[in-house]
Amino acid sequence: MRNRFDEQLFELNREIIEMGAMCEEAIAMAAKALRTGDMELAHKVKENGSNIDQKERDIESRCMKLLLHQQPVARDLRQISAALKMITDMERIGDQAEDIAEIILFLKGHTMEGVERIEDMARETIRMVTESVDAFVKKDTALAEQVIAHDDTVDALFRQMKCDIIHLLAMNPDEGEFALDLLMISKYFERIGDHATNIAEWVIYSVTGVHKEA
User: What is the pTM of this model?
Assistant: First the structure.
């Protein structure tokens, strides 16, 4: 019985890794679409969002079956409940990527200097998502703590981006609407960092039983 349960937990971990990879891809595609003005790529981000939503439902169903059909001990219960919390944050990461894609489609290929720091934010949030999922699978609380600490880097980039936008407006007063769009996009990336932080906090809970809020 325990062997079967462990196999199902392994499958749960595999699906969470897959969902994390889908989120990473969505963030990367959104950043590239912003840089290149690629409308087709922006549409793919939106399509990917539907796949992330379906993956969340699949994992949720697997978790419910584990809870109903098995007799998990306290440690297993923490792992399953943490997984349920994590996929909620992953789904929201997918939503944020979709929101970014929506703005890019509205921009209709309008690109200019000023998006480089947003790309830095995208790269850092991808790292946070990757490492938070790795921490869950490896039960690595030290790695989860690193993810939480790394959110400060994303927050600092967001503050710098706001300064960039002020400079952009000073140099190009007619670009007010575009500047606002950049601000919204950078805020969405900042929120993705927050969701990755939440995932890391649930990783720590799954191992220690203590939910640490940053």
Answer: 0.91
